[in-house]
Design a protein that fits this description.
Blueprint lengths: L1 E5 L4 H12 L3 E6 L15 E3 L7 H8 L3 E4 L6 H6 L1 H21 L4 E7 L22 H20 L2 E7 L1 E3 L11 H10 L5 E3 L5 E2 L1 E3 H10 L7 E5 L5 E2 H12 L6 E3 L14 H7 L7 H21 L1
Parallel strand pairs: 1-2, 1-4, 2-3, 4-5, 5-6, 6-11, 7-10, 8-13
Antiparallel strand pairs: 9-12
Helix pairs in contact: 1-7, 2-4, 4-5, 6-8, 8-10
Bound molecules: nicotinamide-adenine-dinucleotide.
């Protein structure tokens, strides 16, 4: 299958690219490399460096003639969205509109779109099901809500199949140590570099941590399964930021100090995603437990450090 992946040079996108290539698909990556990196991509995967809002994006889609567009490109930082909601809306909403319009013009069969648990806002009950009311408390959650609504509208108006994946807190190799989603990468980087890890708020806030490999698998399954649907992609497990920190301390033998910062605007207090719908309709389930994912991540960053030390 010919698949165009926006944001394919980013953290999650690059794992989706890898899995699609391994599954024998033909991939074109579109990324402006603002956060993404060419080095994240397997060798020989073609990359067009362009902003998804650029009018020329449409002709790239027309030339490649993809059957499916997997849309990962976004402004992903909750704090940045609070500071500059116009830029967040521009990338996430206008950018997605440009992607959807290009998909219509080129006769794309299906779009698979990355959304976020941030669309729910503060949950009324846990784990959160897909039909929970959407009351985002950040501009980022709001822009993702609009992304979802436009995706659905384009699908219904132009007969394009669509799948929306609402991710929990994704973690794993190649994650940057920035943003609220990257809490694990931030902790790891601080512990490794002898800086004090910082918890924003009291650390009792909970998240549903899902491994990037499982998220990539959900995208792969969404190429052919789950026509016109919205799916939570998480684990159903609620883990506090403090617990995550303590588990990392144990794994690394870290005994340094911890710092607390103010709770950040736009951050929700609790989250765990109900994943039964994805299990039923995408025939997907998370395969990597948090324990296994953390162990691998710690082991891998050890190897990276040794590699750096030797070069
Ligand atoms: N990481 C998480 O925990 C998480 C949680 C929920 C949802 N998501 C969603 O998953 C998707 C991927 O996120 P990620 O964590 O891999 O972030 P990321 O920043 O690593 O990846 C985003 C990619 O999009 C590219 N990009 C950004 N703006 C662009 C633009 N205007 N034009 C072209 N390319 C652009 C970046 O260069 C980057 O490579 C996003 O849609 C994000 O909202 C991520």
């Amino acid at each position: 299958m010919r698949i165009l992946i926006t944001g394919g040079a980013g953290f999650i996108g690059s794992h989706v690219v890898e899995l699609c290539i391994q599954s024998g698909h033909q991939v074109l990556v579109v990324d402006n490399l603002l956060q993404g990196q060419q080095e994240n991509l397997p060798r020989d995967v073609p990359l067009v460096r362009i902003d998804i809002r650029d009018p020329a994006f449409s002709s790239i889609v027309a030339d490649f003639r993809p059957e499916v567009i997997i849309h990962q490109a976004a402004q992903v930082d909750v704090a940045a969205a609070v500071a500059d909601p116009i830029e967040d809306a521009s990338v996430n909403i206008v950018g997605t509109l440009n992607v959807l319009q290009a998909a219509v013009r080129s006769g794309v069969r299906r779009v698979v779109v990355a959304s976020s648990a941030a669309v729910y806002g503060e949950p009324r009950q846990l784990p959160v099901k897909e039909d929970h009311p959407l009351r985002p408390i950040s501009p980022y959650g709001l822009s993702k809500m609009a992304v979802e609504a436009y995706t659905r509208w384009f699908g219904e108006k132009y007969g394009i199949e669509w799948v929306i994946l609402r991710y929990g807190n994704v973690y794993g190799p190649r994650q940057r140590a920035v943003g609220e989603a990257g809490v694990l990468a931030r902790f790891l980087a601080a512990m490794r570099n002898g800086c004090r890890p910082v918890i924003f708020g009291d650390g009792k806030q909970t998240r549903d941590f899902v491994h990037v490999f499982d998220v990539a698998r959900a995208n792969l399954f969404a190429l052919t399964r789950g026509t016109c649907g919205i799916y939570n992609i998480g684990t159903g497990q609620e883990v506090s930021v403090l617990e995550l920190y303590e588990r990392l301390c144990q794994l690394l033998g870290y005994r340094g100090e911890l710092a607390y910062g103010p709770r950040r605007p736009g951050d929700i207090q609790r989250m765990a995603l109900a994943i039964e719908r994805a299990m039923d309709e995408l025939e997907w389930e998370p395969l990597i437990s948090l324990s296994k994912g953390l162990e691998e991540l710690v082991g891998q960053s050890d190897l990276e450090r040794q590699g750096r030390g030797g070069s």
